[in-house]
Each structure stands twice: as C-alpha cells, then as structure tokens.
Amino acid sequence: MNHAGHDDAAMDHGGRGAMPDMCSMSMLFTWDTRNLCIVFRQWHIRTTPGLILSLAAVVLLAMGYEALRALSRAYEDGINQRLSVMPRRNRENASKRGHVVKAVLYGVQNFYAFMLMLIFMTYNGWVMIAVSLGAFLGYLVFGHSTSATKDNACH
C-alpha cells in the first residue's frame, strides 16, 4: 500500500503518539490515568478535576448498589409479612405478583453488579479503590441488616 503523501504521525497504528485523546485500554494493573475511559467511550477522563469527579461518581455508584440491595431486602421482608397475614386464597395471587417484583429487583441487581465489575476491570488502581470504597461506605450506610458475606461474587 502506498502511503506517500500521508503524515506518518497520523498513520501510527501502534497506538502511541498519533491520537493522544483516544481511550486507553489496559489489561494490566496500572495507576496511569491518561486517556482513561470508564466503561463507555463517552466517560473519557481528560483532566485531574474530571478524574476526581469520576472517582466520586464511582464511589456513589458502588454505594447505590448497596442501597438497591437494601431496598430489595426491605421489599422482600415487607411482602413476606403481608403474605403471612393474608387469607390463603388471596395469598397465592399476591405471592405471584411479589415474586415478579422480586425477580425484577434481582435482575437489576445483577446488571448493576456486572456493570460495577466492568468498572473495576479498567485495571486502574484509583478506580478499583473507588469501587471498593463505595462498597464499604454503602455497606456502612445501608447494610445494617445484611450479613458481611456475599451471595453474588461479581461485586
């Protein structure tokens, strides 16, 4: 292929030098935050304030997961209490409706957990710390009635 007349820097296919604003994807642990993208190309961190805001957002996202888990537990406890006082013939329909809502909450929790796993898998130490800090703070705030052992291993 004839590359005459093309700028060599623009044709750098090695991923270095030519396009400094592209997302970097490391498959090895790193502390480097240059051109860090978190899950989406649009979540591209270019500045130190952007990094700090992104890390704060990751902490809040991880806390949100623990809040969702607490909400799911509260819903399940509430539905179980209501079912225990219902007449038998009404209990079956209410149980089916409750199970559908629990299934939706379960699916959302799994999606959320896998998204947090993908965030963690940026292999960036700062992002990993932010996910872990968010899990800690979320458990501290929302995990009063939860065992410290986990059923779901992806987060």
Automatic annotation (TrEMBL):
The lineage of its organism: Eukaryota, Fungi, Dikarya, Ascomycota, Pezizomycotina. Signal peptide: none annotated. Belongs to the copper transporter (Ctr) (TC 1.A.56) family. SLC31A subfamily. It comes from the Eukaryota. PANTHER family: COPPER TRANSPORT PROTEIN, SOLUTE CARRIER FAMILY 31 COPPER TRANSPORTERS. It is found in: Membrane. The chain crosses the membrane at residues 50-68, 99-120, 126-142. This is Copper transport protein. It is a multi-pass membrane protein. Keywords: Copper, Copper transport, Ion transport, Membrane, Transmembrane, Transmembrane helix, Transport. The gene is g1274. Its main location: membrane. It holds the Pfam family Ctr.
